[in-house]
Amino acid sequence: MMSTTRPYSPGDRDPEPDVEPGGEAEVPTGRQVRRLSFEGESGVVPLARDFTRQALYAWGWLPAASADQRAAAKHVLLVVSELVTNACLHAEGPDQLGISCDNKVIRVEVSDRGSGQPAPRTPHRAGRPGGHGMFIVQRLCLDWGVVRAPGLTGKTVWAELGAPA
């Protein structure tokens, strides 16, 4: 799977409507959205995982009824951890986590103020510590990319995962 810099994957919808941090919205397409602001927060990786886990319960991904559903939920939590950790290590920390879900796809978005461009480390060396985050994201996700707002510092790294069968 190749990384992309498309703001949205093929056939994706318009950007999601604004929702209060920690809030949820039901949009006309049946897509549910939750956002978490990290402003003034510490321990952002566990905070992001807990927030995501609560969303997965609310959206019926958890508790998992099968091994496939359990694996899908674990993959979402791992991708959230990797994207938030990357923002901590390479971009002065994350500003916001957004997760949205319809019946087929869950989308994770992590916004930060960093100028760097995330990419899987090439060549990937499985036996060496560090540098595996975007490789993991690339392997687990249907697609991922980076969105930059013209004239603003920072970016949003997004990743999409398929819903369990």
TrEMBL record:
Annotated Histidine kinase/HSP90-like ATPase domain residues: 48-158
Keyword 4Fe-4S: no
Family annotation (InterPro entries): Anti-sigma-factor_SerPK, HATPase_C_sf, HATPase_dom
GO molecular function: protein serine/threonine kinase activity
Region (Disordered): 1-27, 111-130
Keyword ATP-binding: no
Residues passing through the membrane, by range: none
Entry keywords, A to Z: Kinase, Serine/threonine-protein kinase, Transferase
Pfam families on file: HATPase_c_2
PANTHER family: ANTI-SIGMA-F FACTOR RSBW, ANTI-SIGMA-F FACTOR RSBW-RELATED
Protein name: Histidine kinase domain-containing regulator protein
Phylogenetic placement of the source organism: Bacteria, Bacillati, Actinomycetota, Actinomycetes, Kitasatosporales
